[in-house]
Amino acid sequence: MALPQPTPAFTAADYLRWEAEQLDKHEYLRGETFAMGGASRRHVTISLNVASALDDALEGTPCRAYMADMKVQAAADEAYFYPDVLVTCDPADHRADQFMRAPKLIVEVLSPATAAYDRGEKFAAYRRIASLTDFVLIDPDHRRIEHYRRIQDSRWELQEVEPEQALLLQSLDVSIAWQRVFRNAD
User: Fold this and answer.
1) In this structure, what is the dihedral angle of CA atoms 90, 95, 100, 105, given to the nearest 10 degrees?
2) Which residue ranges make up each domain of the chain?
3) CB within 8 Å of 56: residues ≥ 6 apart
4) CA distance 165 to 158
5) 3-state secondary structure (DSSP) of residue 124
């Protein structure tokens, strides 16, 4: 996670107004903003592979996939994040301009600088989103996929997706081949 930017702590409403005027992206967590760094080629390739597979699979359903530049509100207005990929089936989200409130799936592609944060504090905030049923972490360096699935309100089950297995997203009735996730990410 990057170091906090030298701005005074402000409210979520202040952040949303300020962020709309910025050239670069910033995430927000409990009054602090964090500049988003650029992504590697592998990171972008994997994000695109997953978003494309989801877009194809969700055609004709009320669900839509979004990438990189769409924020998610998490932790009851204490946090706004830019997940690599998200899916929402909520009609209000499909009309939203600044951020989504009801994602079903969030995918984060890990980097060495953000892996601990994505697994820790960010996932803790995501778990407080009532609509979220699936959280997927993809590690490009180790070609690993970790799929967390909500099995009760506060219980999550981890499935490590083995090479050559598919990522099964039962809540969306979607399956993505392991090879598709990592295609062209050598």
Assistant:
1) 40
2) 39-181
3) none
4) 15
5) helix
DSSP string over 58-85: HTTSS-EEEETT-EEEETTTTEEE--SE
40-56 tens-digit pLDDT:
899 999 999 999 999 99
- Write the CA distances from 174 to 45, 141, 145, integer angstroms: 20, 25, 16
CATH class of domain segment(s) 39-181: alpha beta
CA distances from 65 to 37, 40, 54, 172 (A): 22, 21, 6, 11
Instruction: Convert the pLDDT of each residue in 108-155 to its tens digit.
Output: 999 998 899 999 999 999 999 999 999 999 999 999 999 999 998 889
pLDDT in tens, 27-37: 999 888 888 87
Are 176 and 164 within 8 A, CB to CB? Answer: no
d(CA 54, CA 105): 10
* Angstrom distance (rounded) from CA 61 to CA 105: 15
Task: Write the pLDDT tens digit of every residue in 88-103.
Answer: 999 999 999 889 999 9
Q: How far is CA 157 from CA 40, 83, 146, in A?
A: 29, 20, 10
Q: Whole-angstrom distance between the N-terminal and C-terminal Cα of the chain?
A: 25
Q: What is the DSSP letter of 51?
A: H
